[in-house]
Amino acid sequence: MVNVADTRFDAWVAEHYEVLWPELFDPATLEPAVEFLAELAADRRVLEFGVGTGRLAIPLAGRGLDVAGIELSTAMARRVTDHPDGSPVMVTIGDFATTRIDGRFGLVYLARNTITNLTTQAEQIAAFRNAAAHLQQGGHFVIENYIPQLRRLPPGETTTVFSSTADHLGFEVYDIADQIAVSQHIWTIDGELKQFSSRHRYVWPSELDLMAELAGLTLCQRWADWDRSPFTVESRSHISVWQKGIRAAETIGTGAAADPA
């Protein structure tokens, strides 16, 4: 069902992940995310969809939480199991739209735009339903995702640049008719030119809310970032939290803000 290729995140990408995306490991980025998720989890079991190299799962396990992960790329998953502190994280190989793990969890989360790795609406809906199936009553599903920058496109143009540094050029090419964005990365690493391309289905917060509703989840929080800064029409990303087993009226006053989409 899921067309995320294991080879896209191959052994070379897994080995160089921290070099390719160093901003994800900056304590200013990482620590607020871990704190946010740990607070939401309390003492309940935690499941990460697309656990990757364990960037978030390992520090959460280090706080004494029972953490599991689902990961399609075996090369990425090995980075978790080979990590000196990775042994408490139980990783299952599979796609997070359909793979099931025994038991119930108080928190399921999906970070860094990974929902867009599922390139059809049906797959994204399946991921929400899979999250809901794993959650206990009152449990939370969290997604970190970017806001598509279509407003920045001049008439007739399809490309936006999201990163331009001395050693990294990143740009996204939008196919608005099919709601697809192709991310292109070009790095200079150790004097060599490296390229990476990935296909994504971009998705608006309002569409994610509808997917959540179809899965029996209700929006209870929405922030611009892990530091709980307010989500506004100018926000470039969002942290959204849905809860299982509550009514919409019970979410009033939680900090959710108006959706710009």
Describe the structure.
- The chain is α/β, with parallel strands linked by helices and 261 residues long.
- Helix content is 24%, strand content 31%.
- The chain is built from 7 helices and 11 strands.
- The chain has helices spanning 11-15, 17-20, 27-41, 57-62, 74-81, 121-134, 205-214, and strands at 46-49, 67-71, 90-93, 105-110, 135-146, 159-164, 168-175, 180-189, 192-201, 217-223, 237-244.
- A 7-stranded mixed β-sheet has the order 3-2-1-4-5-11-10, sandwiched between helices. It has a 4-stranded antiparallel β-sheet with strand order 6-7-8-9, with no helix packed on it.
- The radius of gyration is 18 Å and the shape is globular.
- The model is unreliable at 1-7 and 256-261 (pLDDT under 50).
Can you lay out the helices and strands and say which pair or pack?
Elements (H helix, E strand, L loop, with lengths): L10 H5 L1 H4 L6 H15 L4 E4 L7 H6 L4 E5 L2 H8 L8 E4 L11 E6 L10 H14 E12 L12 E6 L3 E8 L4 E10 L2 E10 L3 H10 L2 E7 L13 E8 L17
Parallel strand pairs: 1-2, 1-4, 2-3, 4-5
Antiparallel strand pairs: 5-11, 6-7, 7-8, 8-9, 10-11
In short:
The chain has 261 residues and is an alpha/beta fold. It is built from seven helices and eleven strands.
